[in-house]
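Dear colleagues,

As part of the handover before I leave the project, I'm documenting each prediction I ran so the next person doesn't have to rerun anything. This entry is a single chain, and its sequence is reproduced below.
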Amino acid sequence: MRASKLIILLCVAYAAYHFWSEHHGRIAGGTAGSVIKASANGFVPLPLGANNPPEKVWVCAPPYCPSKKGQRADELMRLLPNAGIQCARTATVHFAAANEADWDRINSIWMSGGPVVFVNGRAKNNPTIAEIIAEYRQNGGR
C-alpha cells in the first residue's frame, strides 16, 4: 500500500514537472500579465478537491520519509496539534483546477520543494510553523 502511494506520488510529480517544463515561460499564477496575490504569510490560492476538505491543515509529504522534507513534515505534524490546529498528512492531493493558470500555480508550488502545506484553500511550500499558524488564524481558524 505504501509503495503504491509513493509510485502514484512520483507519477504526479513527473507529470507536473513535464507540464511545467513545457510552460516554463509563464510565471506562477498564470501568464506574465496576471498576478495572483499571496497572503501576508506567503500562501497562494490553490483549488483543492473534495477529498481534501479545507477545515484541516494538510501537510503533503511522503509517509515514513527519512529525507529532510519528511523530517520537516514530521515536525509540523507534532507542532500543529500543540497549537490547537487540526491537521492531516497526505502523500496525495486532489486538485479542482479549473484552468491553466491554476495548474501553473500548482506546478510552481509543488515543484519548489516541500513539504507543501495547505491552509484554508491556500498553499505554500516549506512554511514555518509561525506562518502556518498565522495563516490558519487569519482565515477563520481558532
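Strands lie at 44-45, 57-60, 87-90, 116-119, 122-125. The chain has one domain: 2-138.

All the best with the project,
I.
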